[in-house]
Amino acid sequence: MTDKTYIITGALGCIGAWSMHHLIKRGERVVSFDVGDSSHRLDLLLTPEEQKHIIFVKADLSDAAQVLAAFKKHRITHVLHLAALQVPFCRADPVRGAQVNVVGTVNIFEAARQSNIAHIAYASSIAVYGPPSDYPPGAIQHDALPAPRTIYGVYKQANEGTGRIYWQDHQISSTALRPHTVYGIGRDQGLTSDPTKAMLAAALGKPFQLNFNSPVQLQWASDVALQFIAAAEQPLAGAYAFNLGGQAYGAAQIIDMIRLIKPAAQLTFVERTLPFPESTADSALRQHFQTIYATPIEEGVAQTIQHFERFSHDERLQKVING
Ligand SMILES: NC(=O)c1ccc[n+]([C@@H]2O[C@H](COP(=O)([O-])OP(=O)(O)OC[C@H]3O[C@@H](n4cnc5c(N)ncnc54)[C@H](O)[C@@H]3O)[C@@H](O)[C@H]2O)c1
Known about the structure:
This protein is an alpha/beta fold. The chain has a domain at 5-180 and 220-245 and 276-292: 3-Layer(aba) Sandwich (Rossmann fold), CATH 3.40.50.720. The chain contains twelve helices and twelve strands. The strands form three sheets. The chain has a seven-stranded parallel β-sheet, sandwiched between helices. A three-stranded mixed β-sheet has the order 7-9-11. Strand 5 (119-123), helix 6 (151-170) and strand 6 form a beta-alpha-beta unit. Helix 3 runs parallel beside helix 5. The longest helix is centred in the N-terminal third of the chain and has 21 residues, at 94-114. The chain is globular, with a radius of gyration of 19 Å. The protein binds nicotinamide-adenine-dinucleotide (NAD). Nicotinamide-adenine-dinucleotide (NAD) binds next to helix 1, helix 5 and strand 7.
């Protein structure tokens, strides 16, 4: 019997569900902490039998008492803090966005401090950076100056500051990972969810238009979850924030990749640039972690489309495309 217990905030979200998938398959004790109660992503990744091993806590990250209670009750040892409101939701309600994304992250560090937990892994984002015009040509290095263009990015930058101060004042170490554009099963919301929605549409034989065409680094949700698990299990002495790597692809290339699997896919895109970098460098991550999870894009796309096809009867997937 393991003495480790993982808490995953935002566990019912895309990266959270994949993190539970990997940890439950490994036989770990896992606490899902999420304000939502829809299992629509998890149902694509774990059977009802496997889900019985998860301890579900329906609670609000922005409430410090609820966070601390979950840490204490379940004797948490490992933290993957993923819950957040994504770009469109922060833009629509910046106050709630700050409560969840900023105060919620302070609540996690506080709960860790009060539970004698020495290390946290949490999700930051490439949204801490500005667009390519802010930086020299090439991939943006992990220590390049933040220059967020969204309120969501401002909140992520604040969280990295919180991490630094908890190391300075309380010696709680933290590792933030900054994904770019996560794709795969469960990626159904957020500004950059369209590449996955295009894969889903192709699997279901439906037309779809991507809402941007600036290049994005596509990172498979399964890989990103494994990297978060490694970040939670391997404390580093300090407060670190790492970019994840990968090649950047524009909408036309993404469509070409999908058509390798589904030649008849009815996919188009609009000319629109995202307020984010196109490419970030993962050299610092590679210096600190032995294993970098980076499944080749062709394989990740193929697996995602095949996985969607297996669940094509699920009405909840139809709704993702129809909005
Ligand atoms: N998906 C990406 O491409 C991407 C890119 C960069 C950073 N990130 C970051 O990675 C993390 C996970 O992303 P995702 O794509 O899995 O997100 P998601 O939107 O799929 O899931 C977020 C989850 O957080 C939960 N949540 C929201 N408010 C909460 C609250 N008050 N209390 C508890 N739970 C709450 C939601 O119910 C949801 O299940 C986020 O912090 C996100 O900002 C994601």
